[in-house]
Amino acid sequence: MQGESYGRVAQALRDGDLDAAGLDQEHRLLLEFVETITRHAYRVTDEQVQALRDSGWNDSQIAEAVYVTALFNMFVRLADAFGIEPPAMYESGGIPTAARPE
Description:
- By secondary structure, the chain is an all-alpha fold.
- 60% of the residues lie in helices and 0% in strands.
- It has helices spanning 7-14, 18-21, 25-40, 46-54, 59-82.
- Helix 3 (25-40) runs antiparallel to helix 4 (46-54) and helix 3 (25-40) crosses helix 5 (59-82).
């Protein structure tokens, strides 16, 4: 998602605006699933997982999404606990809207 051709999509994702990102249904469902894991993992439902399967994701891909999401969240929490901030060159506008605490 680097480069100008993905600039609009990348910005929409940083803003947490899945509508503006123009994602197809299967990728939107996956990102909604990832959001559920990130914000309220205990709210993941069998129906949500089945919707992913029905849209074309297989169990290995769904499991990988869970693992990657869990690891990323662990890294973020470690960075938060130690007060580690990304260099401004990566996020010149500060913390992306989608990553800000509620």
